[in-house]
Amino acid sequence: MNLPFFVYGTLRPGERNHDLLLRGRTLREEPGRLRGAVLYEGPGYPYAVEEPGAVVSGELVTALPGAYPALLAALDRLEEYVPGDPRNLYERVVREVVREADGVAVRAWVYVAAPAVATRLRARGKPIGSGEWRG
Fold first, then answer.
1. Residue 50 falls within a domain, yes or no?
2. Are 39 and 127 in contact (CB under 8 A)?
3. Which ranges of 1-135 does DSSP label H, i.e. alpha helix?
4. Tell me: the pLDDT tens digits for 22-76?
5. Do the domain assignments include residue 134?
6. Around Cβ 52, how many Cβ atoms within 10 Å?
7. Is residue 133 part of a domain?
């Protein structure tokens, strides 16, 4: 399923992982909003935690067709995501993201806090009320 990616932290333009992983691999990068999630501060990067009523700002990234498999693998490595691994810090899930330009909702991959991480953040984490993270 070649879906776009919704990025909200170090992969956004101007952040440290954007040039490293996305430059030259994207067809489009456009502002978007993920509804139903809250951002929490992490150790140098944020976590999105699913929670009704909140909104996270970021970019909707569409990979170049030939770059998709390598980009998906690179992003999974960055986020240390392994399908089904209980030690994951993030889970890669499909969610609807609203494009800011036209208000259209599109399905996209989003890395959200894994269940154990989300529980810890809800209990003791520092939420980012604006939904906007900049390192």
1. yes
2. yes
3. 16-17, 68-78, 115-124
4. 999 999 999 999 999 999 998 889 999 999 989 999 999 999 989 999 999 999 9
5. no
6. 8
7. no
